[in-house]
Design brief:
Number of domains: 2
Helix content: 25-40%
Radius of gyration: 22 Å
Number of helices: 3
Largest sheet: 5 strands, mixed
Strand content: 25-35%
Number of strands: 7
Structural class: alpha/beta
Order of helices and strands: EHHEEEEHEE
Distance between the termini: 29 Å
CATH architecture of the largest domain: Roll
CATH superfamily of the largest domain: Transcription elongation factor, GreA/GreB, C-terminal domain
Strand order of the largest sheet: 5-4-3-7-6
């Protein structure tokens, strides 16, 4: 059985999405299917087929979320002692050794990852290179443009 590590915020977001899909989208789609069914011949009823297809996608997502929540390992990094080591859930500031460009990422679960908001999947190459290292360490990360070295400037438990 696969376990899904996630932050407290990521777990809450999945619960919120599940509630929205179950209590808002599911009834809305049932009503849309009922209304489309009343329009007559189901073979050539585009509204009916579109609503059924959307219902199938929503039900699949609900099942996926339920499976992830059931197998979630929620990690609250704020309750873990700060050692300067990069672990799941920490926010890491790194600096490119060559350009001195600074980046800040929070290492999160697969479902939470959003590079634009600085949330890096624990399975990404950068996160895999950082996990287990400490402030002051230099890590080499394989990128499409070659090997890039980053120094770990700060590890925060926020």
């Amino acid at each position: 059985m696969i376990k899904y590590p996630m932050t407290v915020q990521g777990h809450r977001a999945l619960e919120d999405e599940h509630e929205f899909l179950s209590k808002t989208e599911r009834p809305r789609l049932s009503q849309a299917i009922g209304e489309a069914r009343e329009l007559g011949d189901l073979k050539e009823n585009a509204e009916y087929h579109a609503a059924r297809e959307e219902q199938g996608m929503v039900e699949a997502r609900i099942r996926d979320i339920e499976g992830r929540l059931q197998n979630a390992v929620v990690i609250d990094v704020t309750t873990i002692a700060h050692t300067g080591k990069v672990i799941f859930g920490t926010t890491v500031e790194i600096a490119n050794v060559e350009t001195d460009e600074s980046l800040k990422y929070k290492i999160v679960g697969e479902d939470e990852a959003d590079i634009k908001s600085g949330k890096l999947s624990v399975g990404s190459p950068i996160a895999r290179a950082l996990i287990g290292k400490e402030e002051g360490d230099v890590v080499a990360v394989k990128t499409p443009s070659g090997l890039v070295e980053y120094e770990i400037v700060e590890v925060a438990h926020i």
